[in-house]
Amino acid sequence: MIILIILKPKLPVVLDNFKLYLSEKSDLTEAVIDKILKEVRVESIQKGEFLLSAGDVCKHAFFTEKGLLRAFTVDESGKEHIIQFAPENWLISDRSSIYFNAPSDLFIEAIENSRVIFISTEFMGMVSEMSSKFRKANDRALQSHIHQLQQRINQLLGATAEERYLTFIQKYPDLLLRVPLWMIASYLGITPESLSRVRKDLAKKNFKS
Amino acid sequence: MIILIILKPKLPVVLDNFKLYLSEKSDLTEAVIDKILKEVRVESIQKGEFLLSAGDVCKHAFFTEKGLLRAFTVDESGKEHIIQFAPENWLISDRSSIYFNAPSDLFIEAIENSRVIFISTEFMGMVSEMSSKFRKANDRALQSHIHQLQQRINQLLGATAEERYLTFIQKYPDLLLRVPLWMIASYLGITPESLSRVRKDLAKKNFKS
DNA sequence: CGCGTGATTGAAACCCTTCAAGTTTAGTGG
DNA sequence: CCACTAAACTTGAAGGGTTTCAATCACGCG
Fold first, then answer.
1. Domain boundaries, position A89
2. Which whole-number Å values give the CA distances from B6 to A177, A200, A209, B3, B14, in the listed order?
3. pTM score, whole prediction
4. pLDDT tens digits for B137-150?
């Protein structure tokens, strides 16, 4: 008789996306990356949980290994304004809060059950020192970030609700399926009702999806 | 008899503001700064002249030694959207156009007769290598810039015309006296007529200045 | 099943824009 | 220095896009 005993192995946390990210953005060997990965803090964040609240000092950048995060502000009248979404492979944080060690005015929340890498300033500094390619990739990302913010300002200055929506679905088609419409409305700076009507109009003009 | 001949001396271009800027942001000696200053390109720009046009690749950051510059986009319908003003001691440029060597979508124009320093990437690199304080100051400025862009997005997402105007005059009281109101309206994302009415309402509520 | 969240729809109100006209201001040349 | 012109600013009336509020519907989940 054969007795089969299967010991459930201690599952290593899967960090495929973050590993890929590091190997693409840096010129470190896989061995070194694997070593680094053992040091990073990873957490499972349930839908609805917060990674940062307004008033707190932001201490980490967050890399979405799995799931979906959002950053938003809340104004005096209690209305939310969504600043950014962060699906898989995106970084999200309050750069200036980290940099100036100042209270953030952002909330960062998981809107799906997520696995999130906590990236400290020290970690960034360490990898930057190890790889000049990584440093450059970060510079690049910073410039892109600024450019993207300016484009958004530009659109908010001039575009109608419909134009904003069309830009959004063209830029982030994947998010459309994962993010409730009222959050998209918040990102676009319009009410959920308005977005609903915009979509209705577009459907009438036989606009696909 | 005494004949007095006054030879008009070759006037050195006055760069007090930029000199002060360099000495505050770096830890270079005055002698070194003076040497550096001889290398920079300075130009007098008449009101209405352009330093950058959409479609061109931006090659310089511009430091306003004297005068006032603005950056703006023009949308499909021909409307201008002002992205930024740059009075004395401000830097203005299209970072991403410089960085990615890509055509800019910005115009940069003098709205007063101005004296402008052309700052090349090489110049920035050189000073950065000479002074780590300068490097850090630039990092800091970059972070502040991002923060300021985010605050503006936030306001465009939620605030009324009046709120935007009040924020503007509180943040840039000096510009109010130098910039035509229709440009301020453009910066705020409203029409000149609306701004006029907002100001009228504020005056009625006996709001000073 | 019932509850809560998200989405839709309608009607009224509101803010802002548009268009058009008039007024003020500033700059230019005689 | 005044006259002229263009640009900037104001004001009014009408219209449009969005919001607000309220009600209803659809769906997933305990």
1. 16-130
2. 79, 80, 80, 10, 21
3. 0.91
4. 999 999 999 999 99
